[in-house]
């Protein structure tokens, strides 16, 4: 029975948009795992039970995968890639052999053996890892839970079919759950207690442009099936049982937002050119090939950052050269002739397949990204060969991450030349490709003039640059307030990078989150950034700002900002300038009535 008083909860806005509908709660409570000691005579039978459960689990995931492929809707490959990852986990030696050892040596029942084996794997993911890699701990949970439920004879997937247009509320959703719910039923939105912006539900919801709020914490304890519920994916708000007046307000906000999106998309095929004729390229950051249609639909002109780490997730082996090649070829062909910047692996420490991790007290400052790749030449070689082979299928640019000095850049370029020499000797066609670097370390920013002499382009990774410059982890709630993109030290570094690039004739792009914030657009124009790369849905509003601006105004603004001292003063000046020069321009960026009934 629905309640009448409104309750507003705040979570993480994972996929923008406003959805209004009836709540459909899904029970995904943790399975109760029995524990008992086996007699010696029971061991072989328990091993057989484990084998059967693994086989059944694989068949189930294969069936889900088949349904997703058969549906042939945008975003299918996100699901199938994640489901394939889970199927590989079912064969992972760290899971299977450890569970078998627990049964044989500890004489534990199969359910408890699987629980202990999955716990051991999860512990291998460092607690200090970023959100993306923390979320892979959830993958291990989902796989372990499936095996245990099959051992207990319980159904591991969602069986309660929701009607079309409902808002699904759950503690968490597995990739199989999300696949079935999205592909078999038209769900209006997702809300989960758990998760982050990098959880499966969030990634897929963004790709398919379904509103989602994750990490709400207690929505399943508050919402009941049949309640009216509002989801504001941009602001991370969930309103349960809004009053008729509040609901009407959100309906109006939703209609205004949709109309605003349509108006913004009218500029999709127009250039991002300022009033004084400076053209900026607006590109997208992607992880999956299936994000390309959404990127193009929002007016994306290129891919400014393709993250390749997903190829490594959930597996104990390394992807081979052919797997790399097919993946890159698909992206390049989908975008051709538009430029595609593919970043080599940003891996290391806490960002490696199970069984390959290295112990590090501070993985953020340890053996990662280009440092790790140079230490693992065979792995790096496979990726570089595949990139060069794929270059004939589109407009490829190769980018090396976390370059701290000229020696690292030279070593990475040498590895690329070696791969090219091998392919040339084998008669394999490839093209010479532009080579650039991620400028995300203060050391690289400080010697940008020297680095510019040895590469073809810069791409500023502001997420890490800001954290390394100010010395904070923005995921740490105790210091997150210090994360200031417009900190004077950050502005000075950005100017240093852009000035060095301009002096050397090296284009400077930006692929951090700062690039997708419309309020920053005038500052970035003034600094001289020539390409802004962001999530596809952010492109239209940034383009609107660029087309209404003058680059000379941006340069004057930057000069004033550099004369200020505190981040708060700089932020205030930027906001005041945007409000003065573009009154109403950013209206709709934060749509929705004020939340009521905070609970």
Automatic annotation (TrEMBL):
InterPro entries: PEP-util_enz_mobile_dom, PEP-utilizing_PTS_enzyme, PEP_util_AS, PEP_util_C, PEP_util_CS, Phosphohistidine_dom_sf, PTS_EI, PTS_EI-like
Root EC class: transferase
GO cellular component: cytoplasm
Active-site residues, record numbering mapped to chain: 200, 511
Pfam families: PEP-utilisers_N, PEP-utilizers, PEP-utilizers_C
Molecular function, one GO term: metal ion binding
Subcellular location: Cytoplasm
Residues where phosphoenolpyruvate binds: 307, 343, 463-464, 474
Annotated GO biological process: phosphoenolpyruvate-dependent sugar phosphotransferase system
Positions annotated to bind Mg(2+): 440, 464
Residues in PEP-utilising enzyme mobile domain copies: 163-236
Cofactor: Mg(2+)
Protein name: Phosphoenolpyruvate-protein phosphotransferase
Record organism: Anaeromyxobacter dehalogenans (strain 2CP-C)
């Amino acid at each position: 029975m629905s309640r009448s008083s409104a309750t507003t909860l705040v979570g993480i806005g994972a996929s923008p948009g406003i959805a209004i509908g009836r709540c459909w709660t899904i029970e995904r409570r943790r399975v109760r795992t029995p524990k008992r000691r086996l007699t010696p005579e029971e061991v072989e039978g328990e091993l057989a039970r484990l084998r059967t459960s693994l086989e059944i689990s694989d068949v189930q995931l294969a069936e889900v995968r088949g349904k997703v492929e058969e549906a042939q809707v945008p975003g299918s490959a996100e699901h199938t890639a994640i489901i394939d990852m889970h199927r590989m986990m079912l064969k992972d030696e760290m899971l299977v052999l450890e569970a078998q050892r627990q049964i044989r040596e500890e004489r534990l029942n199969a359910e408890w053996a699987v629980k202990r084996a999955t716990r051991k794997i999860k512990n291998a993911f460092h607690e200090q890892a970023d959100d993306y890699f923390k979320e892979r701990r959830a993958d291990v949970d989902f796989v372990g839970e499936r095996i245990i439920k099959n051992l207990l004879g319980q159904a591991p997937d969602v069986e309660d079919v929701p009607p079309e247009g409902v808002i699904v509320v759950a503690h968490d959703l597995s990739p199989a759950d999300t696949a079935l719910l999205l592909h078999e039923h038209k769900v209006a939105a997702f809300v989960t207690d758990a998760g982050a912006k990098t959880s499966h539900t969030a990634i897929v919801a963004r790709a398919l442009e379904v509103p989602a709020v994750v990490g709400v914490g207690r929505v399943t304890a508050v919402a009941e099936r049949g309640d009216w519920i509002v989801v504001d994916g941009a602001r991370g708000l969930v309103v349960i049982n809004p009053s008729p007046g509040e609901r009407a307000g959100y309906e109006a906000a939703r209609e205004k937002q949709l109309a605003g999106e349509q108006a913004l998309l009218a500029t999709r095929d127009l250039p991002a050119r300022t009033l004084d004729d400076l053209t900026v390229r607006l590109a997208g950051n992607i992880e999956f090939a299936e994000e390309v249609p959404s990127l193009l639909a929002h007016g994306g002109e290129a891919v400014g950052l393709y993250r390749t780490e997903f190829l490594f997730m959930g597996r104990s082996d390394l992807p081979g050269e052919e797997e790399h090649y097919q993946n890159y070829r698909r992206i390049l062909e989908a975008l051709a002739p538009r430029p595609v910047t593919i970043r080599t692996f940003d891996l290391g420490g806490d960002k490696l397949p199970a069984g390959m991790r290295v112990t590090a007290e501070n993985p953020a400052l340890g053996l990662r990204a280009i440092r790790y790749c140079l230490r693992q030449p065979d792995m790096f070689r496979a990726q570089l060969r595949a990139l060069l082979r794929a270059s004939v299928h589109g407009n490829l640019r190769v980018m090396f991450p976390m370059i701290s000095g000229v020696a690292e850049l030279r070593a990475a370029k040498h590895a690329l030349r070696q791969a090219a020499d091998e392919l040339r000797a084998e008669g394999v066609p490839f093209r010479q490709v532009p080579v650039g670097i991620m400028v995300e370390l203060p050391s690289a920013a400080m010697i940008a003039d020297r680095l510019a002499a040895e590469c073809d382009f810069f791409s500023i990774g502001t997420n890490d640059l800001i954290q390394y410059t100010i010395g904070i982890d923005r995921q740490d709630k105790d210091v997150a307030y210090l994360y200031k993109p417009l900190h004077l030290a950050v502005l000075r570094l950005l100017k240093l990078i852009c000035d060095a690039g301009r002096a050397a004739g090296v284009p400077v792009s930006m692929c951090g989150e700062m690039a997708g914030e419309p309020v920053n657009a005038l500052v970035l124009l003034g600094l001289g950034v020539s390409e802004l790369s962001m999530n596809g849905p952010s492109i239209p509003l940034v383009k609107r700002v660029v087309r209404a601006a003058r680059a000379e105004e941006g340069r004057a603004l930057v000069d004033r900002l550099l004369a200020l001292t505190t981040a708060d003063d700089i932020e205030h000046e930027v906001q005041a300038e945007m409000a003065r020069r573009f009154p109403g321009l950013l209206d709709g960026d934060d749509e929705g009535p004020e939340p009521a009934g905070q609970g």
